[in-house]
Amino acid sequence: MRILTPSKITFLALIVCFLTQKTKAQDTNLNIKQDPKFEALLNEKRKINTPLTVNERYKIQVFSGESDKAKKSLYDCKQEFSTLDGTIVFNTPNYKVWIGNFRTRIEAEKNLVEIKKKYSNAFLIKPQK
Hints:
Number of strands: 4
Protein name: SPOR domain-containing protein
Number of helices: 4
InterPro entries: SPOR-like_sf
GO molecular function: peptidoglycan binding
Organism: Flavobacterium muglaense
Structural class: alpha+beta
Order of helices and strands: HHEHEEHE
Strand content: 15-25%
CATH topology of the domain at 55-125: Alpha-Beta Plaits
C-alpha cells in the first residue's frame, strides 16, 4: 500500500477543488413552441375519452355479485354480444357487469330486449357522475 506524502495530498486536494469550481450545471431554460390549437385538440380528446363509468350514456347491468363470477359473466357477454363494450365496476360489496354505451334510452331499450333473452335479470341504468 502506498502512503501519500503531505505535499501530494495537498496537490490532489487543490486539483479537486479547482475542478469542482469549474464544473457547471446544465442550463435549465427550455423554450417549447407549440401550436395553440394543440391545447384545444387535447381538451376535445379529454371530453371524448371520459371513463365508461362517468358519462351521460345508458348502460345495461347484467350481473352483480362476486369478482370471479363477474369476470365470467363479462367474458360470456363479450362472446355473445361482441358489438357492445363491457366493463366491471366495483361498488361495495359487489362487482357489477355493465355492457353497452348507448346515447339514447330508446337505443338502450332495443338492446335490452335482446340481452334479456340471455340474462333475464338485466336492467337499464344511467350511471351518475
